[in-house]
Amino acid sequence: MKRHESLAEATSDALADDQVLLVRIALDRYRGDPDVLSAAESARFRRMRSVGKRREFLAGRSAMRRVLAPLIDADPRDVPIEHGGHGKPEIGDHEGLHFNLSHSGDQGLLAVGRRGPIGVDIELARPGRPFRRLARRFFAVPEFDWLDGLPAADLADGFYRLWTLKEAYLKAIGTGLTVSSRAFRFDPEIDPPLLVRTPKGHEAPECWAMHVLPADPGYHAALCMPAGRFDYRQVSLPGV
To answer: What are the domain boundaries of the chain?
Structure first.
């Protein structure tokens, strides 16, 4: 695993099939560039009223385009980002490159790979939430039972561990909210976590690999990608 590469270094050569590029975006410091947005993105950006939402959108879309452009030998503004049937962004005419973006709080996380569909999630932990009530609503029964058995001091970490895994899987399969978060489940006690059931009509659990990613204090992150060995390379924006 390589850490703290520059963006130019990380995208200077072809991304191998067994590699995932992770780009961490400091949304409070990475300004982004409106000139690299597509016409549709520029129009959406101008319609936004919230300063925070505008900042997140510009930083995330700018980073996405600047990362993807050299990997397909294109200008950032010309990267053909399209949306699948349930709204998941994808690159048109470049089926061999997959990406996914997540953001929460002041951090964004972009994952890029070639092996197949990929999903990533990052969450800012918010202490004091009704974790058991949320888990009973959104987790499968065995997952809730595992969480319910944790000591009170571990409840928040356990909740966000499962929540990010579930979000990453749902984003990888690209179904949006058409699949219930209770229709699949994990064994969260195994490291790396094990997907043990998938929704009806979807690929078997062994087709997927789940990974809990390192994150800054107060954050939790997870990655879902097709099964197999892989290495990841990491970039931080702005560079550190």
So the answer is: 2-237
pLDDT tens digits for range 86-139: 778 888 776 689 999 999 999 999 999 999 999 999 999 998 899 999 999 999
Compute the distance between CA of residue 141 and CA of residue 147 in angstroms, rounded to an integer. 10
SS (H, E, C) 64-115: HHHHHHHHCCCCHHHCCEEECCCCCEEECCCCCCEEEEEEECCEEEEEEECC
Phi then psi dihedrals of residue 6, to 5 deg: -80, 160
Topology given in CATH for the domain delimited by 2-237 = Ribosomal Protein L22; Chain A (3.90.470)
Cβ-proximal residues to 90 (8 Å cutoff; 6+ apart), any chain = 81, 82, 83, 84, 98, 99
pLDDT tens for each residue of 18-38: 899 999 999 989 989 999 999
CA distance 233 to 131: 33
What's the CA gap between 154 and 131, in Å, rounded? Answer: 11
d(CA 128, CA 130): 7
Which residues are bridge partners to 120 per DSSP? 223
Compute, in degrees rounded to 10, the torsion defined by CA atoms 132, 159, 193, 154.
Answer: -100
Single out the residue of 81, 79, 71 nearest to residue 112, CA to CA. Answer: 71
What is the tens place of the pLDDT at every residue in 167-189?
A: 999 999 998 778 999 999 999 88
Contact assessment for residue 64 and residue 38, using Cβ atoms and an 8 Å cutoff: no
Best CA proximity match to 22, nearest among 226, 221, 240, 227: 221
What's CA 218's distance to the chain center, in Å?
Answer: 17
